[in-house]
Write a structure and sequence with these properties.
Blueprint lengths: L1 E5 L2 E6 L12 E4 L6 H9 L6 E4 L3 H9 L3 E11 L5 E6 L2 E3 L2 E3 L6 H13 L4 E16 L2 E14 L13 E7 L13 H13 L1
Parallel strand pairs: 1-9, 2-4, 3-4, 5-10
Antiparallel strand pairs: 1-2, 5-8, 6-7, 6-11, 9-10
Length: 204
């Protein structure tokens, strides 16, 4: 299954008709060669759309076909827990978010993920535990379509100092939270981030 977010609305690409409950109410489309994938993207961009589930035989093949219509930007992000098992979150542009950012030339994705967490949250002593999963969301810039592929890593830290938001990146608050106490169904965050947090909650 691939979760592809367009204007913060999901396009779920899957080879199974058995969907997890939160996607059950989305419009379902069976993929055929007659379907224009970018027409489907434009339909989801309509303000009235809530998203779509695309059911196909080979979800990876269809995802790669869709991906070829975008310029892909690779980013790295951190799902960071401290010694109290609290999660590091930050507020960016008025919504709760996880630290992430574009990979710089010459650095690995892991290096970029750690650097972004350090820069955006004013933290150090980070240790990557393992790769978690990728997330995908699209945006338009100067008439071009981009796909941001964010590679997420579970990280841990013994850092106990003050957290410092990177104001020049529109981050206004950074804090530790107990993820088990958050109602993710109503949490004020981006849908792609909500999906990551739901997955983290379910696997902890």
């Amino acid at each position: 299954m691939y979760k592809f977010f367009i204007n913060d609305k999901p396009l779920i690409i899957t080879s199974s008709e058995e969907l997890i409950p939160r996607f059950q109410q989305l419009r379902k489309v069976s993929y055929t060669s007659a379907i224009n994938l970018m027409d489907l993207v434009r339909q989801i961009e309509d303000p009235q759309s809530t998203g779509c589930v695309l059911i196909c035989e080979d979800s990876t093949e269809v995802f790669m076909m869709l991906k070829s219509n975008f310029t892909t930007i690779h980013a790295g992000g951190g799902i960071v827990f401290n010694s109290k098992k609290e999660l590091l979150i930050m507020k960016r542009l008025g919504k709760w978010d996880l630290p992430k950012g574009k990979i710089d030339p010459g650095e690995t994705i892991e290096e970029g993920a750690k650097r972004e967490v350090e820069e955006e949250c004013g933290i150090n002593e980070l240790k990557i535990e393992r790769f978690f999963e990728n997330s995908y969301h699209t945006y338009k810039l100067q008439g071009h379509r981009f796909l941001k592929a964010t590679h997420w890593y579970l990280m841990e830290t013994g850092f106990e100092g003050n957290l410092v938001p990177q104001l020049e990146e529109s981050i206004t608050e950074v804090k530790w939270v107990d993820l088990s106490e958050i109602d993710l169904s109503t949490y004020d965050t981006y849908e792609s981030i909500r999906e990551i947090l739901i997955e983290v909650q379910s696997r902890k």
